[in-house]
Each structure stands twice: as structure tokens, then as C-alpha cells.
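Researcher: Good morning. I'm working through a list of sequences from a screen, and I'd like to move beyond sequence-only analysis. For each chain I'm collecting a predicted structure so we can compare shapes side by side. This is the next one on the list. No need for commentary yet; just the structure.
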Amino acid sequence: MDLFTPLLPPDRLHPNFKNLLSDNSWDVREVLADWAKGFIDRDNKFVREFQTTFNSCWWELYLYAVFKSLDIDIDFSFDAPDFVARDIPMVVEAVISSHAENSTPEWMKSVSDLTGGGHIEQRYTETLARLYNSLDAKRRLFDRRYSGLPHVQGKSFVIALHNFGTPDSFQLGDVAMQRLLYDIEERETFLKNESIPLPLGIFNRSEFACVSAVMYSSVATYGKVRALGQSTEQFVFQAIRIRNNSELISIAADKPDYIESLRDGLRVFHNPNATAPLPFGLFEQPDVREFRVIDGEMLTTCHPEGDLCMRQVMRIAPHGADL
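Model: Good morning. C-alpha cells for this chain:
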């Protein structure tokens, strides 16, 4: 599958895809090509969509790489959901949260986005609305279509969601998702656009019992691939990890000294009320943070070096070089 030979004129290509074509992104293309090995374009539209809409396809490639790393074999003979595990009773539907209409898309980052501009609670609330819309749409799709498919029935149904909703989404971690799914603070609702009440704690609602778990990441981004790639250019990585669910660890390192795995930053939120629960051990890896509610208490796994919460990357261009 040739991802990178443009199929359309430049004015029809997504800005993120055009960035991939630059000479200094050879390492990014190399990592993505590795992610894509074995991926099957079932409807012969994937490459075109990767080049024109980008983010949803990027997320699917990342998920496929994660499944390969966990030895989860995917059966591509079914047209839906997006991933049907061959040897375990699990299906996964991928979705992204995109920017709201008339708002700034994630690829148009400003200095304030990189320095944490804006009130954090307002940013969480904006994120909540985007996440809820994405999850509810896929829950409705399951009820309307997937629940009737023989290869889905009786299996764990997982929604895999990446947040591309705002230019600073890579900085916001999983706080909004914790609130949306579990409502540990018992707020019950939040206001979308300061006027429309939407529910919190949706895993406690009967209509979401069909959702076994939510896989989530806000850092499976360009920076992820920069961390994994082999470029010898000068990059500075700034990251925050959380250890034992309380201790924040700040990291600033040049690329040769920075360590990040493929799965770092990936979260799996288990639904305690699921009709077909996701087995706890399936994603039991040090670099995957799992959330469970047992006897009313939210419990999380903890990476010994801290779970990745956010990461940003800055390229230091040589004097006189083109940025």
C-alpha cells in the first residue's frame, strides 16, 4: 500500500499529509510504512482518505500497529467494524474527535497552544463535548447496525478514540475522558456551549452497556512518530508523565536521550457495567494505562517510570536552514 505518492493536486491534500512529504520527514514516512505493513485497504479508499482527511486514517494505522505489537491478529474479511480480532472475542471501532465548525483545526497551532493558553477547565469542557459526541455516535451505530452482525454478537465492543478536537488536545491528557466515563467527582452533567446539558458518567447509563471499553490517546501524534523515528536532526522533547496516579514527572530531553514506546500514552477504560466486558489481561502492559471501577472505586495501573500524559516536540533548525 503506497501511502505517500500523491493521488490529487496539492490544493486538495490535507496539510498534515503535505508535511509528511518534506525531506526532513523521511523518518516519519518510514515509521508509518512500518505501521501499515499487513494493513488491508478493504474498500480501496484508504490511501485517498489518508491524503485528504488524514487524521482518522492516521489513527487507524496507529491502532493496527498497537494490535500487531500485542500479537492481536486482525481479520480484514469483514467490512465493519474497523478491527475484528481473529482469535479473541473483541471488535474495535475507531473514531476521532475533530474540531468544531468555525473553530481552529488542530494543525494550526499557535504559541498560546504550545504554552497552555486559556483556562484549563474551559478547555476540559470543550473537550468533553467533542468526546461525548464521538462516543455517542459510535454507540448509536452499534445499536443500529453492528449489534445485528453475526461476527460481532457476544463479543466485546471497544470504541477507540483519539482527540484531535483542538490545537492543544495533545496537552490535555485523559482528565476529560475520566470525567466523561466515570464521573468520579459526581457532577452528573456538564454544559456544552454553556447552555446544553450533557451527561457525565456515561458508563453508568444503560444505553452505554454495549460499550465494553474505550481505548484512548491524545499523544498518538506526529510527535509520537518523531520519538520512534531514526532522524538525526536536533529535536527537543518536553513531556509529562504521572507515576502512581499522583506524582508528576517533567521531562526535557534531546532526541538521543528521550525514550518513548509505541504504546506510551495509550489508555484503556473498562466499562464496569458492560454487557460483554473486555478481559482485564488483554492490554496488561506496562506502557498501557488501564482504568477499572471495582466496588465503586476507580483503580488504575501505573507504569514504573510514569504514564505518559503529554508530549511536545520542537525541531531545532540549523542556522540558515529552511523551517
